[in-house]
Design brief:
Shape: globular
Number of strands: 9
Oligomer: single chain
Strand content: under 5%
Strand order of the largest sheet: 5-4-3-8-6-9-7
Radius of gyration: 46 Å
Number of helices: 70
């Protein structure tokens, strides 16, 4: 609603005062519709009249204030309802209020200002600024009123108001601290700017107050500083440098704020930061001023710094995009920024390195992994000698934030094309990075501080395995530097132990190995005592890292030897011996509380202290004249305690247990190698205490074990007993064992389950008896045990019930005891089953299944073994149904425990050993047992698809226990032939990491202790090893090979039927077909004469189906070898040409490739006939319609011709001399010749020898590689550890020619070498100058939404005839970009459409939009024509003017037609002119959006040229 319209409506008003009264009356009438846009128009009209009319008196002004402004201000509450309409109304009311106060009495102005100041004060102090009656002025209203009161309008304020102004300024600044909403903050900033523009006095103090607030907010980590700096930018950074009052450019604090703003997580803060950077750098450049802050920023007019900052800003702006193809071209500019940080001879660089840190932070925030990898690679390869990040105090970023950015596992991948086992990206660079830092930080104290920070960052944060593993590997390669003191060792131990607790064993072991190398490199022995070092070694487990005989053990012992030779205090050889002696005495000392529990870490530390000292030649085995203290002293002190026990009745059993604990630990650590001197030396001492140790165990069983806390003692005694029985051969030991076993039987027979004490004794007796039964080798003792056990069926096995009277022991603890009891009981049962033929009466199958249902841990495994021994008896008795039921029940138990920890794998091994044993696998094909086993095998194969390692267990068991010819399980073997999943990216990464660790070999102990192999790949390895053990000369093996081949071919036919059509390369169907054909070629020697014709025909039929080249090559090779063995198959080949030609072009190419290889294999008598037929067959295909067929035919024909010459087949050459003509085109430089040449260079034609290259290496490694299968399908010969020494097929290829060939067709990237480093071409990025930037679009939009800034009179685009929303949205965007003054729609509702907004991209927020219905267009046209507009239509008519010839007037209304019907005839008659776009194509119409864009651009282009000419002439 404009002024003229309302004036016409209020025509009865004779003057402005009457008009104001009419409007006030209307406002009061429509106050319920105050959010309506027309209501705001009324307020703007009031403001316009009051501002422009001079005869409006104060009474009238006060009336507007009292009846309109103040009531509305007290009813608008944006704090609670901040919708756009409320904010728009507030802007209108405040603007009206400001206009009124200019003409109101001064007292009214002062009163309102004071009221606002009171609200601001309460708000800034956190007090309640709302009134009790519910009528209060909102804080938004308060700030908005002040903003408009002090809006400069050319007026002068009185001194009292000036004083209030300064007070208001301080209050507004203080209140900003409490403001959280950006809209409110922007209103407050506008208020401050208005105040400063009115009163320029004391502006320095005013800006100082704002700067102080900015610093406080920045220190608290808020986003407010960026809003404040941008809002006050015109005062902090005026365009004219002479107007600078408060110069922030010279303050480092300002530049720190900017640097942090670069990488803020809030996008608006980053945008505001870029605005500040652009404004300041442009100001420095345009004003030609010099700037020097304390350290972070400088600008010299003579230096060309603008280019560097433009690159910096360009990178920042581009990083706001998500598409990597937009960002990628800009990234090379980083090299310029890095170069700009280099320090010149004056000790200053163009950029301070902290700016690099800021942009690195921003880069590493990006969501695209390519950007992250690129940035990490740049940082890791920085030369810190040239780039002074470490010299300029940026080490905190490198040690903390940058290191934490490496937590992303996707950063660590194998380089494309690198073989398996190669180092991962970043891993090598990481090592170089740490070494680079070490060399630059040449001061020991800074080196120590830097690396301590790194270790602290690692220890204090959570990491996934891959990044942390590779970081530790890199740290392990740094030069030795003494930085770890006692506290550092403890932090490292605790951090690594807690971080790796949930890792898999192999990764954890590798991690510990790297950690050990770091420990030896970084320990500061001057600040660490030996015992502290050895206590740290307890973090390294024996099974994963630190085990005697491994490389890590040797590294530690060598290090210890070197350190002791240095003669440092506390670390001499004598000091270490003294530590051993004192630690042994301390360990054996009984504490005052007389507790028997020993700290396992303390035990392990003492053991390693002793043995590492022995291996480091510090502690000798025996005493000599030179060596007073030796290992003998330590062992004697232990053995003496054990041997003295029988004769010293008052000796503490706890002391004996401690001695026993050390002896058992020492024996476990040294192992049982007869070649190890230390092992045999300790064993000798152990033997001398065998009898005494056994007596001690008997004593403990009789009198010592009575409560729950005695469980560790029981376990210790069982460990000691197992060592004694396996290593001692004294007769006295046998007697002692017999007495001990008798005592165990006595307790188990006589004790009841009434009390905890009796149950504890029963548990001890059962555990001791189970241990004896498990390790007994003495025949007398064995027979004695059998006799005793056979008479113990009443209590072995038995239950272990918790007494009702007991309430002290938890159910969990009792469950653990019951499990130990069951395990030991079934050890005894297993002993009986193994050594007695008649044991059915002792333990039944039902009892086994009953106990299996409640068993866990070792008990389950032992029960499975017992069932294994009982099942053959059931088979012999013909009870097959019972066998099937047992298999079913035990399989259900196994499935129930699937995925429940590592115990599942032990269960699986025991189950398959039980189920797939020879008596069961050799049942007849129609036996129910066989059917059940096949069902179980198929279930295991299915589980193996998801769980690696399951199929390995199954296949191993079949190979061991299922004798050839395996007729019942051939389908399972066929499934194993094609087994193997397609790995996910995460799984591939883990495999790459494991492969890399494995490639380090003996450098890591984990590879010696737990060698890793890819489980799924090892299924194929084990199967191939099994097949290669077969002998084609053995009739049984020969028939098995034939059966298996038939099964494989049948399976392949099924797959072809299921997956009709071509399959994607490296997809699962492709891989499965490839694996099957590998096995066909592997088993080719087992094809008999009688079967050859059938299988050869089958292979030829397969060529008619779509398949990948890798699969075809195996089929081709198999056909070649069959023809070589059975020449009569050649006739089948010729007949296949006509059949395949109709089915498959690739198949026809395969037949030609086979033909090219088999000629030289023919007998001399049949060669001429072969080549005559072959050349005739191939020659006819040289003119085939299909290009691939022609190329293959020419290539093969060329090979055949060369073979004829080489074989001197002159008759063939003479008869086919005409084919020389075919070769003429190959001499030309054309597409055909190039493709033929490329094909002839292919490895399969140029290098493959079907007999020489027939090896496992070629079939399973070279061919998959050359055929471009992913490397998880390549099987290196090194995996075949059990390959037979003699086999029908060699493991490795005797000739390396084929292995040296390059992979199949590859695409290579072309690089323009002429382009200098660090330069880039055009980039797909729109750079916006700071003058056009709006650092807070959203808030400005909300404040200015009610009155879009109208453009000057120009082009009006009318789209009322268009009804498709996408076209309207696109035209809206085009109109905004090219400065259309008004955009006319048929319905304003279109603007709210999501499709419209998606295509307009916020253009509708900045473009004036009017609604004119289609029916009202004639009236609207008449109005615009009266205003001087030329009405132009876009339409092809008889009188239309070409766009090339039309000159647009400045005031143009452009009408676009409907998508289908164009402009109706009744509207064309109202237009001044119709314009058409010249066209040259057949189609006579353009999309309306495209047409509109062309016309709008042409209008803008013409007037830009006109404006340019006018400017130049003036």
């Amino acid at each position: 609603m404009d002024f003229m319209t309302v004036k016409d409506i209020a025509a009865e008003a004779v003057n402005s005062i009457k008009l104001i009264e009419q409007l006030v009356k209307r406002v009061k009438t429509e106050k319920d519709n105050k959010t309506d846009p027309e209501f705001c128009d009324l307020l703007y009209l009031l403001e316009g009249i009051i501002s422009t009319e001079q005869d409006v008196g104060t009474d009238c002004i006060h009336k507007v204030l009292d009846e309109v402004c103040l009531p509305l201000l007290f009813k608008i509450h944006p704090s609670f309802d901040s919708n756009v309409e409320n904010v728009a109304l507030l802007t209108s009311v405040s603007s009206l209020c400001g206009a009124c106060l200019l003409k109101a009495e001064e007292t009214r102005v002062v009163d309102l200002i004071e009221q606002c100041l009171g609200i601001l004060t309460s708000y800034s102090q956190g007090a309640d600024w709302k009134s009790e009656d519910g009528e209060f002025m909102d804080i938004y209203c308060c700030v908005s009123v002040l903003q408009h009161v002090f809006k400069p309008r050319g007026n002068k304020f009185s001194s009292s108001i000036q004083k209030k102004l300064l007070q208001s300024y301080i209050n507004v600044v203080q209140s900003i601290k409490c403001m959280q909403d950006n809209l409110l903050i922007n209103m407050a900033l506008n208020c401050l700017k208005n105040m400063m523009n009115i009163c320029v006095n004391e502006n320095f103090d005013k800006l100082s107050a704002v700067w102080e607030l900015i610093c406080k907010e920045f220190a608290e980590g808020n986003e407010k500083p960026y809003i404040l700096l941008c809002g006050m930018a015109s005062h902090f950074f005026p365009v004219v440098n002479d107007n600078v009052v408060f110069d922030l450019k010279c303050k480092d604090d300002f530049w720190r704020i900017v640097q942090q703003g670069v990488s803020r997580k809030v996008p608006s803060s980053r945008k505001q930061t870029m605005y500040l950077l652009k404004r300041v750098t442009d100001m420095c450049h345009s004003c030609n001023v010099g700037v020097q802050s304390e350290t972070l920023f400088h600008w010299k007019p003579k230096d060309n710094l603008l280019e560097v900052w433009e690159d910096y800003i360009l990178i920042l702006e581009t990083l706001e995009e998500k598409q990597v193809h937009i960002i990628k071209p800009v990234l090379p500019r980083l090299s310029k920024l890095i170069k700009a940080t280099q320090i010149d001879q004056n000790g200053q660089g163009v950029l301070h390195s902290s700016w690099l840190t800021a942009i690195f932070r921003r880069l590493l925030m990006h969501e695209n992994i390519f950007i992250l990898r690129y940035t990490v690679d740049i940082i890791l390869k920085l030369d810190f000698q040239c780039c002074p990040m470490l010299k300029q105090c940026q080490e905190k970023y490198l040690c903390e934030d940058f290191l934490l950015s490496l937590q992303e596992p996707k950063l660590f991948i194998r380089k494309e094309g690198a073989p398996a086992g190669s180092s991962l990206t970043c891993s090598e660079a990481l090592a170089g990075f740490f070494q680079n830092c070490w060399h630059v930080l040449d001061n020991p104290s800074t080196q120590t501080s830097f690396f301590r920070r790194i270790l602290t960052t690692i220890v204090e944060n959570t990491w996934s395995p891959v990044p942390l593993l590779l970081i530790f590997e890199a740290l392990s390669k740094t030069p030795a530097i003494p930085i770890l003191d006692s506290a550092g060792l403890q932090d490292l131990k605790n951090g690594v132990s807690s971080e790796t607790r949930t890792w898999d064993s192999f990764t954890r072991g590798a991690m510990l190995c790297f950690c050990g190398q770091i420990l030896l490199n970084l320990i500061n022995i001057e600040k660490v005592l030996p015992l502290e070092f050895f206590f740290t070694l307890t973090m390294f487990t024996r099974s994963e890292s630190l085990c005697r005989g491994t490389c890590f053990w040797k590294e530690v012992s060598d290090w210890l030897k070197t350190v002791t030779n240095l003669g440092l205090r506390n670390w001499t050889a004598d000091d270490i011996k003294s530590c051993i002696k004192n630690q042994t005495v301390k360990f054996l000392t009984i504490r005052d509380d007389n507790v028997s529990v020993t700290d396992e870490a303390d035990v392990l530390m003492t053991i390693r202290l002793i043995l590492l000292s022995v291996d480091a030649d510090i502690l000798p085995l025996k005493t000599s004249e030179q060596e007073i203290y030796s290992l003998t002293h330590t062992l004697q002190s232990l053995i003496k305690i054990i041997n003295d026990f029988p004769t010293h009745p008052y000796m503490s059993s706890i002391k004996v247990e401690k001695a026993l604990k050390l002896m058992v630990g020492l024996m476990a650590e040294v192992g049982d190698s007869e070649e190890d001197e230390v092992s045999q030396f300790i064993k000798t001492f152990m033997d001398t205490a065998a009898v005494s140790g056994t007596l001690f165990i008997q004593q403990q069983l009789t009198e010592g074990w009575k409560q729950m806390s005695d469980l560790p003692s029981m376990n210790l005694c069982c460990d000691a007993l197992s060592l004694v029985m396996s290593k001692s051969c004294y007769a006295d030991v046998g007697k002692a064992m017999k007495q001990l076993s008798m005592r165990c039987f006595h307790f188990l027979r006589t004790l009841k389950q009434d009390s905890v004490e009796q149950q504890i004794i029963r548990l001890g007796a059962s555990m001791i008896l189970g241990t004896i039964a498990q390790h007994v080798t003495d025949q007398k003792l064995l027979r004695h045990l059998l006799t005793q056990i056979q008479s113990a069926s009443s209590f072995i096995p038995s239950t272990f019930v918790k007494p009702h009277s007991d309430t002290c022991i938890s159910q969990k603890e009792w469950g653990r005891m019951a499990s130990d009891f069951m395990t030991s009981q079934w050890k005894t049962v297993l002993f009986l089953l193994k050594n007695s033929k008649s044991c059915d009466s002792f333990v039944t199958m039902d009892k086994c299944l009953e106990y299996l249902s409640v068993s866990s841990g070792d008990a389950t495994i032992i029960i499975f073994r017992c069932i294994k021994l009982l099942l053959p008896m059931k088979v012999d008795d013909g009870k097959l149904d019972t066998v099937v039921e047992v298999l079913k029940v035990s399989w259900a138990y196994l499935k129930e425990h699937q995925g429940k920890g590592t115990s599942y794998w032990h269960y699986l091994e025991a189950y398959t050993e039980m189920a797939f044993q020879k008596p069961l696998t050799t049942q007849s094909r129609d036996s129910p047992v066989t059917h059940k086993l096949l069902q179980i095998a198929n279930d295991l194969l299915e589980i193996g698809e998801e769980k690696s390692g399951v199929v390995n267990v199954l296949l191993n068991r079949l190979i061991i226990d299922c004798p050839i010819p395996m007729e019942n399980f051939l389908p399972v073997i066929v499934q194993c032939c094609m087994f193997g999943p397609v790995y996910k990216k995460q799984d591939k990464q883990l495999i790459d990491v494991f492969s890399y660790i494995s490639s380090l070999g003996s450098k890591l102990s984990i590879n010696q202790l737990q060698p890793w192999f890819p489980k799924n790949l090892m299924v194929k390895v084990r199967l191939v090893e099994f097949l290669c053990h077969l002998d084609p000369q053995n009739s049984l093996h020969y028939s098995f090979g034939n059966f298996l081949l038939s099964g494989i071919c049948k399976k392949y036919q099924e797959m072809v039927t299921i997956s009709s059509g071509n399959t994607y390369s490296n997809s699962l169907p492709h891989r499965q077909k490839n694996r099957l054909m590998q096995c066909v070629l592997l088993l080719e020697p087992f094809i008999s004469q009688t079967e050859s014709d059938k299988i050869f025909s089958l292979l030829l039929d397969f060529f008619g189906e779509e398949m990948q080249p890798s699969v075809r090559h195996y089929q081709e090779w198999a056909c070649m070898r069959l023809i070589g063995r059975f020449p009569n198959l050649v006739s089948n080949l010729w007949s296949a040409f006509s059949v395949i030609q109709k089915k498959s072009t690739p198949g026809l190419s395969s037949l030609m490739l086979i033909t090219s290889h088999i000629g030289p294999l023919q007998t001399t008598e049949s060669q001429e006939k072969f080549y005559d037929t072959a050349i005739s067959q191939i020659l006819s295909l040289c003119l085939a319609h299909h290009f691939q067929t022609r190329i293959h035919a020419l290539a093969v024909l060329s090979l055949l011709w060369d073979q004829c010459k080489r074989l001197n087949l002159q008759g063939v050459i003479n008869r086919h001399s005409i084919i020389q003509v075919c070769f003429l085109q190959l001499a030309e430089d054309n597409n055909t010749a190039k493709n033929v040449k490329k094909l002839l260079e292919n490895y399969f034609l140029a290098n493959l020898d079907i007999h020489r290259d027939y090896s496992v290496e070629t079939l399973f490694h070279t061919m998959p590689r050359l055929s471009l299968l992913f490397d998880d399908e390549w099987i290196s010969p090194q995996y075949f550890n059990m390959y037979p020494k003699t086999s029908y097929i060699p493991l490795t290829n005797p000739d390396s020619t084929l292995a040296k060939c390059k992979e199949g067709a590859q695409s290579s990237k072309v690089q323009n070498d002429s382009e200098p480093e660090g330069t880039i071409g055009d980039i797909q990025k729109k750079i916006m100058p700071w003058r056009l930037m709006n650092p807070d679009d959203v808030n400005i939009e909300e404040m200015e939404n009610p009155k879009h800034r109208r453009r000057s009179e120009g082009l009006i685009l009318v789209t009322s005839l268009i009804d498709k929303v996408p076209n309207l949205g696109g035209l809206c965007r085009t109109s905004e970009i090219f400065g259309v003054s008004e955009f006319v729609l048929n319905k304003l509702a279109y603007v709210e459409d999501k499709v419209f907004q998606t295509l307009s991209v916020t253009a509708h927020k900045w473009l004036p939009i009017r609604e004119v219905f289609y029916a009202h267009l004639p009236e609207y046209f008449q109005q615009k024509k009266s205003q001087g507009y030329t009405l132009v239509g876009v339409e092809q008519t008889a009188n239309s003017v070409s766009l090339n010839d039309f000159k647009f007037p400045a005031k143009t209304l452009l009408l676009l037609g409907n998508e289908k019907e164009g402009i109706p005839a009744d509207l064309i008659s109202l237009l001044d002119v119709c314009v058409e776009i010249p066209q040259q194509g057949v189609i006579r119409s353009l999309n309306v959006h495209v047409s509109g864009a062309i016309l709008v651009w042409e209008y803008r282009r013409q007037h830009m040229i006109k404006d340019k000419i006018s400017a130049s002439s003036s």
